[in-house]
Amino acid sequence: MNPKTKKIVFNSIFVVIILLLLWPTSRAYFQQGLMRIGLFKPSLEKPTKSESEAFIATDHNISFKNDQGEIVQMADLKGKVVFINFWATWCPPCIAEMPSIATLYERLKDNKDVVFLIVEIEGESEKANTFMKGKQLNLPVYYPNSAIPKEWLGGSIPTTLIINKKGVIETKHEGLADYSRKEVSDFIIELTKK
Questions:
Q1: How many domains does the chain have?
Q2: CB–CB of 46/191 below 8 Å?
Q3: Residue 34 pLDDT > 50, yes or no?
Q4: CB 142: neighbour CB atoms within 10 A?
Q5: Which residues neighbour 161 within 8 Å (Cβ) at sequence distance 6 or greater?
Q6: Rounded Cα gap, residues 90 and 27, in angstroms
Q7: Residue 103 Cα distances to 106, 121, 139, 189, angstroms
Q8: What CATH number does residue 139 fall under?
Q9: Closest Cα partner for 96 from 10, 21, 16?
Q10: Is 140 exposed, middle or buried (0-12, 13-18, 19+ CB in 10 A)?
Q11: Would 21 be classed as within a structural domain?
């Protein structure tokens, strides 16, 4: 191959890679591929005591609302393990991890001790529903009905919390993660037994 052809091929490959990384949908597929090979494992470590126990969910008036207008008060979920994912339709890492959350949800949806709140932070119900239908995801989508505590959402999405039966944060993960992993469902099931 002559030097001019090599340069054209190299530049073409470079442009394709840049486009894949910059185009939101392509970036989500790229991130999903990285998740499949074992990257982006969620942190299942308990936050520091001051972070987790300083803010007990059931002691505050935190609520979420779904498309049917039903309001879920966190205080009413005492005695349940709650998986909360904060996301937005414009967020490529949120889009990339959503199928893994759907897998986890399907695995645990019949467990009466586990509640899933997939919270679209912008309150964009039309966009959220279009996204879920387009991706063929059957997840319980909610929207903020009160202020979201800074202990839960510090500004980075996606952010995922797993809250124990007493309303204490068991784990908090900011950024993309693969929630379809067996250790995540095992972690949640173990919390239902405590």
A1: 1
A2: no
A3: no
A4: 24
A5: 82, 83, 84, 152, 169, 171, 172
A6: 12
A7: 5, 21, 10, 15
A8: 3.40.30.10
A9: 21
A10: middle
A11: no
**Using omega within 30 degrees of 0 as the cis cutoff, is the peptide bond preceding 93 cis?**
no
Q: Tell me how crowded residue 38 is: count the other CB atoms within 10 A of its CB.
A: 9
Kindly provide the residue ranges of all beta strands, DSSP E only, lying in the chain, ordered along the sequence. Answer: 63-65, 71-73, 81-87, 114-120, 141-144, 159-163, 169-174
Q: Is residue 22 part of a domain?
A: no
Q: Is residue 126 part of a domain?
A: yes
Q: Domain of 141?
A: 42-192
The 3-state DSSP class for residue 70 equals: coil
Tokens of 31: 């991130």
Instruction: Tell whether 6 is covered by a domain.
Output: no
User: Which one has a higher pLDDT value, 102 or 55?
Assistant: 102
Backbone angles phi, psi at 40, to 5 degrees: 65, 45
Give phi and psi for 147, each to the nearest 5: -65, 145
C-alpha–C-alpha distance, residues 106 and 125, integer Å: 22
Nearest residue to 135 via CA among 152, 122, 117, 118: 118
> What tens digit of pLDDT does each residue of 72-110 get?
999 999 999 999 999 999 988 898 899 999 999 999 999
